[in-house]
Write a structure and sequence with these properties.
Blueprint lengths: L5 E6 L3 H11 L1 E9 L2 E8 L2 E12 L3 E7 L8 H12 L3 E4 L13 E6 L2 E6 L2
Antiparallel strand pairs: 1-5, 1-6, 2-3, 3-4, 4-5, 6-7, 7-8
């Protein structure tokens, strides 16, 4: 089942690199910068527009959030997106371990981390 949206966090990765990755993975339709820390993109995949928000300093000063506000992404969950992002960006990537559900008993501090040392679950506090 496809997640309703995808969100990942990248460590110390310039926004320009993120935009360049997304421009290769999708067709870039529109770009705007509502603030100095926020970049919004509209990308196209399979005739579907996908809104993407890139927010610097989303988790501390060093993490940038990449949020795909769509269920039309090519990934089934956050983890699949995180793996592709790490391959493309070579920056540490973190995502929710279990995906987000409206109701459920998942631990909100349980995360998945991918970096040059490997990948696995960890507690992000």
């Amino acid at each position: 089942m496809q997640q309703t949206d995808i969100e990942i966090y990248v460590l110390s990765c310039p926004t320009e690199n993120i935009v360049a990755w997304l421009a290769k993975a999708f067709t870039l339709v529109d770009t705007s910068q509502p603030s100095s820390l926020c970049t919004k993109l509209t990308v196209l995949l399979n005739n579907a527009n996908i809104e993407v928000t890139i927010l610097e300093q989303a988790a501390g000063k060093r993490f940038t959030s990449i949020w795909f506000d769509s269920d039309k992404t090519p990934w089934k969950d956050d983890m699949a997106c995180a793996k592709q992002a790490f391959d493309a960006l070579q920056c540490e990537v973190r995502c929710n371990f279990q995906g987000w559900e409206e109701e459920g008993d998942q631990d909100p501090d349980q995360w998945w981390r991918i970096n040059s040392h490997g990948e696995g679950p960890f507690i992000w506090t």
